[in-house]
Amino acid sequence: MSETSDYENFDLPEFGHLYFDGYVAAKWDPHFPLTKDQQKRSLVESWTRLGKFGRNKYSDEDILWPTNGHPSYISQDLLSGKDRKLDGQITSTLWIRTWFGKKDDVASQDAADVAYERLVEAAMWDDAQSQYPRYRAAIEPGFVFDARSEFGHGSATTTDENGDADPDIVDGIALARPGSVPSYLITALMHCPGQFDGNSDPRRDDWRHFSPTRIEAELPGIDKSQRLLVCVADRKACEEGLVLFLAINHRGQILPFRIRDRAIEVFQYEANWMDGQTLDENTLKPDDDVEYYMHKGDGWGS
């Protein structure tokens, strides 16, 4: 069961129209010792960690459109056509699957696929088992990231099974440590690195012209402010129906207050977020390290 977006009708931005292009143009290293994809990942992560004011430097027209053009060694195809059309557009909510069953256990992986299908039906479809299911539009289809090759075993997602230091996933559960930039988020952002700030005309964004003094004054508040909503389909979500909702700041860091809630509530969380309601509006202590369960029992019940 799948749903498609109308992104095919979007214009395809040439290289230089996305602000991430400016970062690639400035930082691409033709002598990078690892693969092209590994250099792309490194750039996406460092770009994310810069934060909004650090990224803003690369919206400069002299970087995006140099007089003599970009050197031929700069890779201009890091984003697919679909990714270029969607980058920085439509939504600031991402859905990321991280549970694919246990490593080297086919039965566990098959069960995980069945569980994930149930979760998706509960989160995104009305009358999923009927002849005419209706997509609930809880998450824009272009921002559902669930490819096994990208997020499963052998991917860059850090897990205890792989023996990674400080893993983001332990026994299939997303740890969601406050202040961390989770590996699975970086993988998703490799498709949409401009999702934090968009690619609007700098002349229309006052914050792009703040003085250093103003930036210094603004940063403490911005560091604590939600910029993305990430819905994580980890093992607990797939098996118990309790999706993990993360508030992500402008540097890609997880903010302290997280929520677990029923899959059927995904649409409401997305609607609230689009309406400007942040996750920490559900608590009086937003700085406390808390994963709050909004529903007692498993996530499939009423």
UniProtKB/TrEMBL annotation:
Domain of life: Eukaryota
Protein name stated in the entry: Uncharacterized protein
Organism: Penicillium capsulatum
